[in-house]
Amino acid sequence: MSEAMHQCGIAAVYIKENGDSANRALFYLYKLLLNQQNRGQLSAGITTFNQKRMQVLDTYKDLGPVNEVFKTSDRQQSLEIFKRYAGNKGIGHVRYATSGSEDKSLAQPFERHHGRKWKWFSFCWNGNLANYTELKQHLLDKTDYHIVYDTDTEILMHYISRELMGQKRPNLIKAFTRLAQKLDGCYNIAFINSYGEMIILRDPYGFRPVVYGWKDDMFLAASESNALINCGVTEYKHLEPGHLIYINDGHIQIKKYAESPRKAHCMFEWVYFANVSSVLDGQSVYITRTNLGKELAKQETEKVNEDYILVPVPDTAKAAGDAMAYELKVPAAEGLIRNRFVGRTFIEGSSRDERVQNKYTALKEILDGKKVILVDDSIVRGSTTKQIVNYIKKAGGAKEVHVRISCPPIKGPCFYGIDMSTVSELLVPRYEGKPVVGEVSKEVITRVAKDLGADSLKYQSIQGLVKSIGKPAKELCMACLTGDYPTPWGKKLYMKAWENYRKGVKERTYSC
Ligand code: SF4
Questions:
Q1: Is the CB of 266 under 6 A from ligand 1?
Q2: CATH, domain 280-511, list 3.90.76.10, 3.40.50.2020, 2.60.40.1580, 3.40.50.300
């Protein structure tokens, strides 16, 4: 149960034939978004295309999880939404805010209305622009723009608009090729214009996943494979970094639109973010997590006996915990039960103590008097882990708690779509006080364990992580573990993040 928050998820649906019978795109967009709810619960939205509507492109979005936004608890209201936004193609988005505020006006898609059909478009995306401040400054300095929301989505909208300027309908693939030359960071984009042309693209590094596939006459794309499978797609493909899908007049092309300097798939997608049933770039999330558990078991030094039980923190550490328990021949027990119905509500409570207790129940019947090997996926800030350890000991009566983390220590911020962009919010760097090169020292790990209230603490090794994912290290982004940022602006922001830390600046590094 990492404290690092999810980024966003995108979806796209295209049904070839026109007419009322083909107007099912919204239903499938809704399903794709529902199945990607793990990627963001702050807001959800769609834009659909329907030639019979005055508003050929029309956007609906709101704050809240997908079911709330589509009012599924009220049949009449829900039917009205599905009727009004019926169309044979469209794009969709679930959001977690890594940039900008949690305001409704920042929900995506962003639609830009215009009288010229090629300039009227809607888009949504997931990721973060590492060179956001440079892009914004350029607009302000050179072109007299007025920025309303101060979020990278707005900046991206202006840059897309600039590529579509002119008196003639532009070639969309070339427009996105030019756009990619200006951007540094992580961006997967779904785009549709009022001709009904669509683009779904993956950035040149492939930080986040994009998958696509067919179901009968329908083409679907999404961030994660589980969303496609749950829509009935039996065979799907992973979009390669630097490639896009272009759809126009019933023709679908997959094309390279930008040079890919290297692949940099975010390791955190496998460790924590993605749905456990998804497959990312050919590697199953579930299998990776069980591999991580096996690797943890290999480095275990605790002499386990009948006094021990292993408790995975639900849900994301379950696969790793179960695999580790199997290897160690120690019982895996659900000593922490997750309350699935808490959601985002004001009764969550303001203190982390209250939030942990609302979210989990510690089972005294399981934990009392036991030496607990507590397996979690990652530690970012450390405060949640501390509360869980405390809760298991106090409320559960555990005798000892040995924390095992399936991700190596997080030593640097992320500028590519995960909400941990400052040094001050990270646990290990706070102890080190300077960039950590190589392994975190035993002394620091011991101090961290003590402050967490744990009897011992062990992290996954980088080698164990790479082996578990089963991809060459050079194809992964592990920048927050190693300090080796794959893009020029990532390297720059890493320096700035440490400078900000020394100066006490708390704002997100890429937006100040
Ligand atoms: S810095 Fe870390 S969290 Fe961010 S993309 Fe790279 S591996 Fe993922």
A1: yes
A2: 3.40.50.2020
